[in-house]
Amino acid sequence: MIVNYTEQGWEIIMQRAHGLLAAQVAVQWRKKDRPNRWVETLIAIADHDDAQTELQADDLLTPQGGPVDFKMKRFDPEHCQRLYDFSISKSRYIALLASMHMVFLYTRETETNPQVKPFLAEQAKLQAQWRKQLKITRKEADKIYGFMEWCDAFSLLLAQHEIQPEGRLIEVSQGPDKRQYKLMQSKNGPLTVKPWPFERKSFALNIETRLLPTLQFKSCDQFKKELAEAEVVEKSWRIEK
Fold this sequence. Notes:
By secondary structure, the protein is of the alpha+beta class. The protein has one domain (2-240). The protein has helices at residues 15-26, 38-46, 77-88, 92-106, 116-134, 138-159, 220-229, and strands at 2-6, 9-13, 170-174, 180-185, 191-194, 202-212, 232-240. Helix 4 runs antiparallel to helix 5. The chain is globular, with a radius of gyration of 19 Å. The two termini are 30 Å apart.
């Protein structure tokens, strides 16, 4: 989950809601540069965090009793297995992109966690197998995943309140075309991206959030109960060229 500390308490965004926001970004991408397997690509982007189900988890609190932000999470074989099971049950293409995303996330832990190297080696074998079966080159797969990662990064910038004030630019990520895209808020309120990568000149994005006024929780069960009962607040943004 994405955790933002606010004056009113903890703003919580579910991982699956973040994935849905990433897919909202993806669906606006310029038509001429969309991957061939467009529907499967959108599903992979929307579902890339589906293995994280907060209301069923038991590792949601820090030792101090605050909610655990996703950036605090480390490699978890059970989590990765769930994501594999979810993705391969849909298609090898979706499993390929999910696998590439796990490699992107956990490569940084290679030197600190002995479980990571064999996991990455297994993912490399699976990816090669799926690319061959799907007749997708490594270069094509990297470009498609670059698109997925860009949408993920865009979603995270919004969800984590990282839009810069006073019209300052913030880097999103390198897109699938290896261009560096930047996000900014214009003087009249809407957000814009430079260079403009979308088909339409204007569109809206939204995400559901929950606000918890309790700052310290005695148990994971207490946290999940308050999270389930919290009022849902929809945040929205306008994106304009």
